[in-house]
Structures are given as C-alpha cells and as structure tokens.
Amino acid sequence: MKIVYTNGSNQDFCKLCNLLDDYLNEIVGGEIQRKHYNQYNLLHDIHDVVLIYEDELPIACGGFKHYHTGIAEIKRVFVCKEHRGKGVSKELMRVIEEQAKSKGYNKLILETGAVLIEAMGLYRSLGYHIIPNYGQYADMSQSICMEKNL
C-alpha cells in the first residue's frame, strides 16, 4: 500500500468519490434521497485528503476539513468493495487521525447514515461515539453523528 496526501481537487480522489456516490445511491435508493446532503460534501472544501493505492490503483480515500477551533470534520471515507475486510479502512482512518492531529486538531467529528451499519461499526471500533447531530445535520433523522478526541 502506498499513502498519498493531497486535496479535494485530486483526480483520483474525485474518481473514488464518484464510486462512493454510486454506492450511496444504491443503498438509499437513488440520488434524490441524498440530494440534501450533496451540498455538504463539496470536494473543493476538503483541503486535507488521504489516498491509499495498491499497485498504482487508488483503492481508498478520506479527508477532513476545518469545522471549529481544534475540531475537524471527517469527509468522504471510502474503500473500494474488493478491498474491504482487509484492514484498509482502519489504516486509512489511522492516517487521517494522525494527519489531523499534526495540524493541531484535538477532536474529530463525522456524519454517517443510519443505514451504513459497517461504517458505524468501523468508527465505533476506533473509539468514535455517537453525539447529538451537529450543524447542518441537526434535523436530519437519517444522520448519525460521531466524535473522537485525539
């Protein structure tokens, strides 16, 4: 595995985010169901991105953006289907957390969907816990918000 640090304009990040969107559309029944969330996932707003490559192919991505003093919000975490169950997601999150900490953040927050059982399991296994929905997600019943102190 090769780890690359980049930003939201990276072409491989964009490709992986398109795959993530396809996956989410499949789970929730189409883009119409996710339309309200799209405005909070604009790639140009994500300045800190981690990509994982295997044999020069991008297989995983995730990033974070500034939310508040000392707090970063994790965004667009995705591992290609054929690479799941191999520890890639845990390594990706470890690197994201390390990068956020090196930039002075002491807490990470994230939003995931109630239907994303595997994602919630991953985050819980890494020490994240559910918090009241924050900011734009406050009134979204299908959102689950989580946090972790670094």
Q: Which properties best describe this structure?
A:
alpha+beta; globular; 4 helices; 150 residues; seven-stranded mixed β-sheet; Aminopeptidase
Topology, element by element:
Blueprint: E1 2-6, H1 11-28, H2 31-38, E2 48-54, E3 57-68, E4 71-79, H3 88-102, E5 107-113, H4 117-125, E6 129-131, E7 143-149
Parallel strand pairs: 4-5
Antiparallel strand pairs: 1-2, 2-3, 3-4, 5-7, 6-7
Helix pairs in contact: 1-2
Could you say what the CATH architecture is?
3-Layer(aba) Sandwich
Tally of separate helices: 4
**Low-confidence spans: pLDDT under 50, at least 5 residues?**
32-42
Helix content: 25-40%
User: What CATH first level would be assigned?
Assistant: Alpha Beta
Strand order of the largest sheet: 1-2-3-4-5-7-6
Instruction: Let me know the number of strands.
Output: 7
* SSE run: EHHEEEHEHEE
Give the domain tally: 1
For the sheet with most strands, the description reads:
7 strands, mixed
Structural class determined from secondary elements = alpha+beta
At the fourth level of CATH, the homologous superfamily is Gcn5-related N-acetyltransferase (GNAT)
% residues in beta strands: 25-35%
Radius of gyration (Å): 14 Å
Oligomer: single chain
What is the global morphology?
Answer: globular
Describe the model.
With 150 residues, this protein is of the alpha+beta class. It has one domain (2-109): Aminopeptidase. The chain has 4 helices and 7 strands. Strands 1-2-3-4-5-7-6 form a 7-stranded mixed sheet, with helices on both faces. Strand 3 and strand 4 form a beta hairpin. The longest helix is centred in the first third of the chain and has 18 residues, at 11-28. It is globular. Mean pLDDT is 89; it is low at 32-42.
